[in-house]
Amino acid sequence: METDHRVHIGDSRSLDRLDSNSVELVVTSPPYPMIEMWDELFGSLDPTVKRHLEAGRGRAAFEAMHTALDAVWEALRDVLVDGGIACINVGDATRSLGGSFRRYQNHARIVSAFDELGFEPLPSILWRKPTNSAAKFMGSGMLPPNAYATLEHEHLLVFRNGTDSRTFEPNADRRYTAAYFWEERNEWFSDLWTGITGRHQQLTGTEDRDRSAAYPITIPYRLISMYSVYGDTVFDPFWGTGTTTLAAMAAGRHSVGQELDSGFESAFAERVEGISAVTDRIVADRLRSHEQFVADRRADGEPFAYEADHYEFPVMTKQEMPLQLVSISDIERTGQGYTVTHEPADVDWRTDLTERPPEN
């Protein structure tokens, strides 16, 4: 199996380089309005943002920033197939402007925008992202009442394009081989994800920027596994250093990214060199975790009714039997991106690795 991965340089408020109905899934983490590191970017998109901020008009700046994002969400309607899913990772912001401290609810504003565009909001997920700080509050220290809780979670917002779910041909192999384990379903489709830490990364574009605790590959990999099948195309309109593309490579899906800053392509070229090892780690973790689930269940005297078609262990349901994970056997640079060759996963997940590859 081969997958193609392309990157377009340009403003995602216009997606004219993508065909209509060419994308089955969107997974992205946009710039967060009212987070100071993104002020300059939003100001370049709309000069009124800078004037609002300088005048202390926080609510007006917040709305102007989201208006810029609204144009991207509207463009997604055309490129997403009917029933296609959009997953938006976003955090709220806290900020003092004009002498007032308040929370800016980015997640609520984005939900409203998608709803008004005709997308169906689906149940969302909170990703609890612990910090290393010992201080879990802001404000007046030990004295009530003017302290504030620290925001330690982000929102994974999920929307469907249209009112109907996607349909597939009967017994579609690409859907059944892309199944997840029963116990993974119970964890992944919970509305609270814990134990996934953010990663600090240096973004090298035309200007260096620090992004603290950017979402790790685990987040888009899960979402891609949950909401797409083999053969699907995943799109990220805020590509950055390409975490969504790396996750699509690991999951055996096609991908397209669009990014305003061409400088990030060089940063991605460095990251892609390690994705084969990262994919093997992800596959090994999933298979090893399932074997532990099997061992625990058998220890409790609980039976299994089905055997996996491609692995020497049982599974809980008939739908899991055809499940087959993939590894990366080759990556080739092309004129527009990369072509990745996948093979059925052949990793020794029963071996505890003393030197585990980085999360990338």
- Helix proportion of residues, in percent? 25-40%
Shape: globular
Count of alpha and pi helical runs: 10
SS strand fraction: 25-35%
Average of pLDDT: 89
Radius of gyration: 21 Å
What's the CATH H-level homologous superfamily of the domain at 2-26 and 74-275?
Vaccinia Virus protein VP39
CATH architecture of the domain at 2-26 and 74-275: 3-Layer(aba) Sandwich
Query: Helix/strand-derived class?
Result: alpha/beta
The largest beta-sheet arranges its strands as 10-6-9-3-2-13-14-1-18-17
SSE series: EEHHHEEEHEEEEHHEEEHEHEHHEEEE
- Kindly report how far apart the N and C termini lie: 23 Å
Number of strands: 18
The low-confidence parts are 199-213, 352-358
How is the CATH topology of the domain at 2-26 and 74-275 named? Answer: Rossmann fold
User: Would you state the CATH class of the domain at 2-26 and 74-275?
Assistant: Alpha Beta
Q: Tell me about the biggest sheet?
A: 10 strands, mixed
What would you say this structure looks like, in words?
The protein is an alpha/beta fold and 360 residues long. It has a domain at 2-26 and 74-275: Rossmann fold (3-Layer(aba) Sandwich), CATH 3.40.50.150. The protein is built from 10 helices and 18 strands. The protein has helices at 39-45, 47-54, 58-79, 106-116, 173-176, 182-188, 218-227, 243-251, 264-272, 275-299; strands at 2-9, 23-28, 80-90, 93-97, 100-104, 120-128, 137-139, 147-149, 153-160, 192-193, 199-204, 208-214, 233-236, 254-259, 306-307, 314-315, 326-333, 337-344. A hairpin with a 6-residue loop joins strand 15 (306-307) and strand 16 (314-315). The longest helix has 25 residues, at 275-299. The two termini are 23 Å apart. The relative contact order is 0.16.
